[in-house]
Design a protein that fits this description.
Layout lengths: L1 E4 L9 E6 L6 E8 L3 E7 L4 E6 L4 E4 L9 H5 L34 H10 L22 H7 L13 H6 L2 H6 L22 H7 L1
Antiparallel strand pairs: 1-2, 2-3, 4-5, 5-6
Protein name: Gastrulation defective protein 1
Keywords: Repeat, WD repeat
InterPro entries: WD40_repeat_dom_sf (IPR036322), WD_repeat_GAD-1 (IPR051858)
């Protein structure tokens, strides 16, 4: 037998796959393929299947269930997996128009509207630490506030507080009890030595 494909002629709706007898050149079989040209035909001797490539990118495979071996039969013989009733769980809405307001369910909304509503009114996160001074939220989220709070101060320092006023509160205590300056030079420089000359006079001497 001789196998060949034909091009799509003008006015023809489908190109055919033709099978001829080699001895008599008699047409044995004519199979319509697709509404495009048949570009290439291939017969696989081991699989005993015919593959046809078309001009529109379509590939068709012809086989006999009794004479063909593997190939496309492995794909065609697979059956779809039947869904069990336990695999699908349907969630039905119970409508109770005469129920009390506290037990009444809301009407089902689309997923898009529900996401938009959740985005518009999000719930703020609760504070990690407890408040102080009558305030619920924790104050002072900057690095300076964190350092000041961890220097042994009993009260928290707000970010909007004037730093100059906060320092002047401890000016008198720092003068009487210089805890952060004097002990550092107690062994190396027990008697403080200061430069009383102004910078302008010092520059002239140089």
């Amino acid at each position: 037998m001789l196998l060949t494909g034909e091009s799509l002629q003008k006015g023809q709706t489908a190109a055919n796959l033709r099978v001829f007898d080699v001895n008599t050149f008699e047409l044995i079989k004519e199979i319509p393929v697709t509404n495009s040209h048949v570009v290439k035909t291939l017969w696989h001797p081991k699989l005993n299947q015919i593959f046809v490539g078309c001009g529109n990118g379509l590939v068709r495979c012809y086989y006999d269930e009794k004479r063909s071996f593997r190939g496309a039969i492995l794909c065609a013989s697979k059956s779809y997996r039947k869904k069990k009733p336990a695999d699908v769980v349907g969630v039905s809405q119970i409508i109770t128009p005469h129920a009390l307001p506290m037990f009444r369910q809301e009407k089902s909304k689309s997923l898009r509207k529900k996401q938009e509503k959740d985005r518009l009114d999000p719930r703020p996160d609760l504070p990690i630490t407890s408040g102080q001074g009558g305030r619920v939220a924790s104050s002072g989220g900057t690095l300076s506030s964190y350092v000041i709070r961890n220097l042994g101060l009993s009260k928290r320092v707000d970010d909007d507080q004037d730093p100059r006023e906060a320092i002047l509160k401890y000016a008198k205590e720092a003068a009487e009890n210089p805890y952060w300056i004097a002990p550092a030079y107690k062994k190396t420089q027990p008697k403080p030595i200061f430069n009383d000359e102004p910078d302008a006079k010092k520059a002239k001497q140089e």
